[in-house]
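Researcher: Sit down with what I've pasted below and flag anything odd:
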Amino acid sequence: MVLDLVEAPDILWQPVQHPKQRIVDPGKIPDVLSVDAQVWDEDLTNLGHFLEGAVSDYPEQMSVFAAYIDGQPVSAAWIFFPEDSQFASLWGGATVKGYRKRGLYTALLAVRAQEGRARQVKYLTVDASPMSRPI
């Protein structure tokens, strides 16, 4: 799916109220993997290496976010900004089952859309599963 940021819903431009953090330290990537492991129940070793490398070597192209409740990571997502492109791609959006329906996923979508707008990207792309369709 592709979203033209000019036509994006107003909810994406509201201040994000949930506790979220941009992950800039590769040592915090396990927080992201913790969320994804609980949601997807898969081996995430390769994803961990990829995200650690992106955060340390290409911070201008990748922003990784995690939302926390009581100090625990409960939602995570990232956005990729290809060089010289009007498109940015959304990846990894996931929220631990016990924390869904609280707006965390929407908050991480909003923070990524807002960063895209700040970087003058025109479009966001996502390869979404049916579970994400309502959002």
Summary: The chain is about 30% helix and 25% strand. The first strand starts at residue 2 and ends at 4.
